[in-house]
Amino acid sequence: MTDPNLISDPEALRADVGEPTQLVLDAIRPKLDTYSRRFIELSPFMCIASADAKGAPTVSPRGDGPGFVTVLDDTHIVFPDHFGNRKVQSLSNIVENPQVGLIFFIPGIRESLRVHGTAVITKDEDMRALGTTGRSIVPKRATIVEIDTVTFHCGKTIIRSGIWDQSTHLDAKDFPTLFEVLKHQQKLDTPQDEGDAFIETVVYKDELY
């Protein structure tokens, strides 16, 4: 039995949502300008969406001090591949399917910046050194994105979520630690204090970069 509440084709979706305004359509730009460049330069955090050759997607966060993403020119940006969990889902996807989407955030700013384009992974020494903000540790890889479109996104989701409002921030004690979650999920017998110490010292300190 077909569920009449499901929207299953583009025409039905468009009819339900309506048309975007010309202002919104014209906000989609083919390259960076003064404002989008500055937004990227000030952003300490972004997420990258990618998909493998079969279309299976993943979204991965990327973050460091402002300037960790470097604007090379109006249509190219580069960011370092800092030490992670070695699953390399995003990097594997890029090798199979270079199409990516990125969204940049600046704490305290309601608007965000969306970038779509094609990505490559490089071991070029100069590219790897960019975005390390003066640290001596240089990552082994960097990702270069050739931009197709750039769009400033309105702040409705930021306003609704209150994510930058510190009065809404959860006390860390009100949610289990990462190791507590892993211990429960994987039935680990490592003592809680030892596991928490491992996460804090090895994962969040020794392997941060």
What is the overall shape?
globular
| Spans of at least 5 consecutive residues with low confidence | none
Helix content: 25-40%
Structural class: alpha+beta
Separation of the first and last Cα atoms = 53 Å
- Rg from alpha-carbon coordinates: 20 Å
Q: What is the tally of beta strands? A: 7
User: Strand sequence of the main sheet, in spatial order?
Assistant: 2-1-5-6-7-4-3
Q: H/E element string?
A: HHHEEEEHEEHEHHH
Report strand %: 25-35%
Main beta sheet strand tally, sense and closure: 7 strands, antiparallel
What's the rounded overall pLDDT mean? 93
Count every helix, treating DSSP H or I runs of 4 or more residues as helices.
Answer: 8
Produce a short descriptive summary.
The protein has 209 residues and is α+β, with helices and mostly antiparallel strands. The chain is built from eight helices and seven strands, in the order H-H-H-E-E-E-E-H-E-E-H-E-H-H-H.
Write structural notes for this entry.
It contains eight helices and seven strands. With 209 residues, the chain is an alpha+beta fold. It is globular, with a radius of gyration of 20 Å. The termini are far apart. The mean pLDDT is 93.
Key phrases:
alpha+beta, 209 residues, globular, seven-stranded antiparallel sheet
SSE blueprint and pairings:
Layout: H1 10-17, H2 22-26, H3 34-42, E1 45-51, E2 57-63, E3 70-73, E4 76-80, H4 89-96, E5 99-105, E6 112-122, H5 125-129, E7 142-153, H6 156-161, H7 178-186, H8 192-206
Antiparallel strand pairs: 1-2, 1-5, 3-4, 4-7, 5-6, 6-7
